[in-house]
Amino acid sequence: MSSAEKLEWMDVATYLRLEATAPHKSEYVDGVLRSMAGAINRHNLIATNALVALAIQLRGKPCRAYNSDTKIRIRRRESTWFYYPDASVICLPNEPTDAYQDRAVMVVEVLSCSTRGTDLDEKLSQYLSIPSLEYFLALEQTAPQAILMRRVDKGFLRETYEGLDSVIHLPEIGCDLSLGEVYSDIDFSPEAIREELPDYAHATSEIEPTCHD
After folding, report:
1. Domains of the chain: which residue ranges?
2. CA within 20 to 30 Å of 163's CA: 30, 88, 190, 193, which one?
């Protein structure tokens, strides 16, 4: 979702108090607020499909899938961030009265032209610092393509998935996420998709498509 930063510094307690009644969501970037604009229908459907697929498989298990209204708190030294991922999986939840979660096992972001730089740089770096995190999943909108950061012994391994037949195995939470489910009812015709597709064959850590919206 597109966003803009408000550069006036704010402490965490004030942010949480104001965010509880704010008409629009804002993320908290080490004291700076980043307002969040609404997403297009394609973005929201992909996020919902992923959330539902995870929630169904997690039913009756210790972990739960949470929607985009759930903040994830990240604390590193003296700094704090609050992000609203498009979906998340939590196995050790905070108290029910808390307005955020601290121990995400998985976070999901649906990429867009306006946010992919932040999602694959700033947010990725912060999410991977969460001790409990096992998976960071970034989902493209323009094609059935995904980037997964999977925790391994010495850090995180970057994997890419392409095509509706692809299945992402997530053994730490006991789920298999099919891109066919994630992209159910998404129209990938040229008339519906205006952005240039990322080139995964020559992908680096920075994948920047040409945006036409």
Report:
1. 40-202
2. 88
Phi and psi torsions of 120, nearest 5°? -95, 5
Helix (H) or strand (E) holding 27: strand 26-29
pTM: 0.87
What is the greatest pairwise CA distance in the chain?
Answer: 48
C-alpha–C-alpha distance, residues 77 and 176, integer Å: 35
Please state the φ and ψ torsions of residue 73, each to the nearest 5 degrees.
Answer: -95, 135
**Which pLDDT tens digit goes with each residue over 96-127?**
999 999 999 999 999 988 888 889 999 999 99
Helix/strand/coil for 50: helix
d(CA 89, CA 106): 5
pLDDT mean across residues, the chain: 89
Composition of the chain by helix, strand, coil, percent to 5 = 20, 30, 45
Give the pairing of strands 32-36 and 26-29.
antiparallel
CB of 192 closer than 8 Å to CB of 45: no
Q: Return the CATH superfamily for domain 40-202.
A: tt1808, chain A (3.90.1570.10)
